[in-house]
Amino acid sequence: MFLHNTKMMYTVRVDQPDPAFAKLLLEQFGGPNGELAAAMRYFLQGWNEPDGRRRSMLLDIATEELSHLEMVAQTLTLLLRGSPSELVDQVEGTYLGELLDGKMPDSAALALGSGANVLGGGGARLTDSQGAPFTAAYIDTIGEPTADLRSDIAAEARAKLVYERLIKLTDDNGAKDTLNFLMTREIAHQKMFEAALAAIEPNFPPGTLPGNEKLGHAYIADSGDFGESGKNGAGNAEGFNLAEANSSWRFILDDKPTQHASEQEVL
C-alpha cells in the first residue's frame, strides 16, 4: 500500500526561471543516476530480500527516493514556469519557446509526441539531460546482497557527484539549497548501505563459491614494458604496491604473465 502525503519532503524553491538548467536537471529525474532509477533499484532489491532488516532499510530508502523524485519534478516545474520565450529558445529553438507559451495548436499532443522537446512541454519528462528515455537497463541488480549493496554504495556516490556538479552549474540560491539537500541525502544513504554490508559476515567474496586460492591473491602485472625474458620492466609494479600497502588481502606479484600463458591460439 502506498500513501501520498501532499507535503514536500523539503521546501523546494528557485529564485528565477532557468530552462537551460532545467534541461541539465533532467539527468536526476530520468537519467541512469537519477531518483527514479534509484527508487526502482531499491524497491526491486527490497521486495526480493529475505532478511527483514535489510528489506526494511531498502524499502525505506526506495520510498524516500520517490520523495526526491517529486522534489526534482517540482524544481523542474519552477525552473520552467513563466520562462520568457527568448530564454527557452536558447535551449531548443523557437518551436519549444512557442510551445511552452501555449502559442502552438495541439500543444499537449506535440509535447508528448515530439522527440525534440526534451523538456516535456513545460515540465518533467522521463529522459536524461540529452533526451535519452528512461530504461530498465539502469537497474543493475543481480540478486546477491553483498554484490547489490556494493552496487548501491557506488550508485549513491555517483548520484552525489551529479548533484555536486549541478550545484556548481547554477547561480540560483534556491535551486542550490534544494540540490544540496538531495546531495546530502545521497551521503546518508551511502553510509546506510555501508552499515548493511558490514552487518553481513563474511561479505567477501560475493556468492558461495570461494574461487581458486592462488589466482584470487595473484596481482598480474600485465601492462608494461616486457623484454625478451617476458618479465615486466622495472618501475611497473606501482599498481601492486598500491594494492599491497592498502589492503588486508594478501597479494602475490606475478610480473611474468607471458611465461604461463596458454598455448591455445586465438581463433
TrEMBL record:
It comes from the Bacteria. This is Catalase. Its cofactor is Mn(2+); Ca(2+). Mn(2+) binds at residues 35, 65, 68, 156, 189. The keyword Heme does not apply. Ca(2+) binds at residue 60. Signal peptide: none annotated. Belongs to the manganese catalase family. The keyword Metal-binding applies. Keywords: Calcium, Manganese, Metal-binding. GO terms for molecular function: metal ion binding. Binds 2 manganese ions per subunit.
